[in-house]
């Protein structure tokens, strides 16, 4: 395939994303300072943790001579969209294995239509088949069934050992800038890498956007694969998923709209809104001592 001249530029590290003060009485009233780590500005088409996770994997794929990427996600997966965009920018073929074979009989939603527009070939599988992807033989069957044998495989959410090393850079950028660095979590890779990059005395806080309570074990497994064992000080606040992934009840919508009006920031609803809600709620409940500086990692745009 044609290889764009800017391929090497895409894979180069970007400058640190901006850190912006967010003066907000909901935090100031408790002696807590809120800053926003604007990682949504780190790359124009692969914002935030998507660029940090994908860049090391894209580099590995290119260096190994792969011309096709295959990855996984649900109907509204930000990761699928980011991988499709990366493939277009790098001149790589992309295949997305999508959870839910019933979706093949429906019109594509906006998210999957964007993937297709960026050149991703979508392959829909049953939910039971999809769940088996953690087992190596089942994974191989899924990849072969999608006609992607020999492709470079990126896991769901982009979370693997390479991705964690990419996200550790986010932690290093926040050294000395905050006592607690907080991020919304899907597959846990960003939190696992963020925690590893922070300095001693800093803590990473993850806010899962899915119900289920499975992330603790997943993060420990990811850190073992990437770093050989536990890395950094981290914890989870698991009560802020608002009913599950992609659930945005009216109360959360109102909170996000209010935050936008206060701070002039377009708030992504599925991840970022839940993170900011959690930080406001935890602050009001006294979870953070007076004098604490919180850094909220803004991982994506609406």
Tell me, what's the shape? Answer: globular
The total of beta strands comes to 10
The SSE string, one letter per element, is HEHEHEHEHEHHEHEHEHEHHE
Number of helical runs?
A: 12
Identify low-pLDDT runs.
Answer: none
Provide the β-strand percentage band.
15-25%
Distance between the termini: 32 Å
Report the biggest beta sheet as strand number plus sense, adding barrel if it closes. 6 strands, mixed
Mean pLDDT: 93
Helix content: 40-55%
The largest beta-sheet arranges its strands as: 1-2-10-7-8-9
> Which structural class should the secondary elements be placed in?
alpha/beta
Radius of gyration: 19 Å
Quick tags:
alpha/beta, 12 helices, 4-stranded parallel beta sheet, globular, 302 residues
How would you describe the overall organization of this protein?
The protein has a six-stranded mixed sheet with strand order 1-2-10-7-8-9, sandwiched between helices. Strands 5-4-3-6 form a four-stranded parallel sheet. Strand 7, helix 9 (189-197) and strand 8 (203-208) form a beta-alpha-beta unit. Helix content is 40%, strand content 16%. With 302 residues, it is an alpha/beta fold. The protein is built from twelve helices and ten strands. Helix 8 (161-173) packs across helix 9 and helix 8 crosses helix 10. The model has no long low-confidence stretch (mean pLDDT 93). The chain is globular and about 55 Å long. It has helices spanning 7-11, 25-28, 49-63, 78-90, 110-117, 127-131, 136-145, 161-173, 189-197, 215-227, 250-263, 272-284, and strands at 19-21, 33-37, 68-73, 93-99, 120-125, 152-153, 180-185, 203-208, 234-236, 293-297. The longest helix is centred in the first third of the chain and has 15 residues, at 49-63.
């Amino acid at each position: 395939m044609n290889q764009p001249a800017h391929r090497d530029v895409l894979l180069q590290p970007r400058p640190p994303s901006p850190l912006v003060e967010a003066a907000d009485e909901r935090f100031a009233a408790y002696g807590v300072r809120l800053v926003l780590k604007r990682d949504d500005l780190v790359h124009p088409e692969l914002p935030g943790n998507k660029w940090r996770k994908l860049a090391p994997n894209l580099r590995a794929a290119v260096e190994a001579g792969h011309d096709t990427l295959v990855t996984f996600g649900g109907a509204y997966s930000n990761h699928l969209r980011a991988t499709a965009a990366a493939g277009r920018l790098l001149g790589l073929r992309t295949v997305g294995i999508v959870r839910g074979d019933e979706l093949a009989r429906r019109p594509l939603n906006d998210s999957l239509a964007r993937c297709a527009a960026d050149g991703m070939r979508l392959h829909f599988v049953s939910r039971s088949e999809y769940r088996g992807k953690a087992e190596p033989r089942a994974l191989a069957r899924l990849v072969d069934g999608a006609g992607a044998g020999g492709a470079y495989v990126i896991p769901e959410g982009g979370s693997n050992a390479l991705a964690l090393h990419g996200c550790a850079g986010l932690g290093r950028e926040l050294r000395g800038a905050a006592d607690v660095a907080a991020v919304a979590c899907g597959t846990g890779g960003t939190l696992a890498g963020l925690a590893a990059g922070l300095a001693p005395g800093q803590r990473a806080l993850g806010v899962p956007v899915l119900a289920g309570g499975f992330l603790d074990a997943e993060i420990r497994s990811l850190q073992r694969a990437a770093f050989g064992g536990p890395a950094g000080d981290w914890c989870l606040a698991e009560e802020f998923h608002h009913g599950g992934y992609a659930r945005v009840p009216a109360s959360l919508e109102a909170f996000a709209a209010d935050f936008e009006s206060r701070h002039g920031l377009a708030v992504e609803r599925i991840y970022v809104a839940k993170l900011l809600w959690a930080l406001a709620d935890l602050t009001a409940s006294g979870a953070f001592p007076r004098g604490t500086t919180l850094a909220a990692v803004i991982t994506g745009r609406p």
